């Protein structure tokens, strides 16, 4: 955690600067409010810096519990001819999206992983031909090259999967 000078104005500038410096985000609070331990309040708000990138969908996991369609997408990016595994995306879906993605992906399933690099430890995995590109928001890359806190934003029908590479800040 890094403490910075309190600002009374220009909150959007403070947020932009924090993201440019690689900080996780900023905390904004109502000037006369006190912190209430263990309680969420609209008087203290967290604004997280996030990244967005496109990723190739190479498979999905089976749903668990009351979840429908699929559990998580397995995504990656191209590095030369290699499809490098970048992680699982298991949030950001509504029921209609889960059904739609499952219908699309189950129609292009294959027996083997399309990922040629990166360990994948996912139970109940369904592999798919790498034909679809997903826009994914996330907080950062982990040390082992996986997405931290990824969330599904949507499909990119305007992007060829083979053009998807890891973006560098």
TrEMBL record:
Q: Which UniProt keywords apply?
A: Ligase
Q: Name one Pfam family in it.
A: DNA_ligase_A_M
Q: Per the similarity annotation, which family is this?
A: Belongs to the ATP-dependent DNA ligase family.
Task: Give the reaction(s) catalysed.
Answer: ATP + (deoxyribonucleotide)n-3'-hydroxyl + 5'-phospho-(deoxyribonucleotide)m = (deoxyribonucleotide)n+m + AMP + diphosphate
Query: What InterPro entries does its record include?
Result: ATP-dep_DNA_ligase, DNA_ligase_ATP-dep_C, DNA_ligase_ATP-dep_cent, DNA_ligase_ATP-dep_CS, NA-bd_OB-fold
Q: Does the keyword Magnesium apply?
A: no
Q: What Enzyme Commission number(s) does the record list for this chain? A: 6.5.1.1
Q: Which organism is it from?
A: Candidatus Mycolicibacterium alkanivorans
Positions of the ATP-dependent DNA ligase family profile domain: 1-90
What is the protein name given in its UniProt record? DNA ligase (ATP)
Q: Does the keyword Ligase apply?
A: yes
């Amino acid at each position: 955690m890094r403490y910075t000078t309190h600002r009374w104005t220009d909150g959007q500038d403070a947020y932009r600067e924090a993201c440019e410096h690689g900080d996780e985000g900023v905390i904004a609070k109502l000037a006369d409010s006190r912190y209430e331990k263990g309680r969420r309040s609209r008087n203290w708000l967290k604004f997280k810096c996030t990244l967005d990138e496109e990723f190739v969908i190479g498979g999905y996991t089976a749903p668990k519990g009351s979840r429908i369609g699929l559990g998580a997408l397995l995504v990656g990016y191209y590095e030369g001819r290699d499809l490098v595994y970048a992680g699982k995306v298991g949030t950001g879906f509504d029921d209609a999206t889960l059904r739609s993605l499952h219908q699309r992906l189950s129609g292009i399933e294959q027996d083997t992983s399309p990922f040629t690099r990166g360990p994948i430890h996912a139970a109940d995995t369904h592999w798919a031909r790498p034909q679809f590109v997903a826009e994914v928001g996330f907080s950062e890359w982990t040390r082992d090259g996986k997405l931290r806190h990824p969330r599904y934003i949507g499909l990119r029908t305007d992007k060829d999967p083979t053009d998807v590479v890891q973006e560098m800040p």
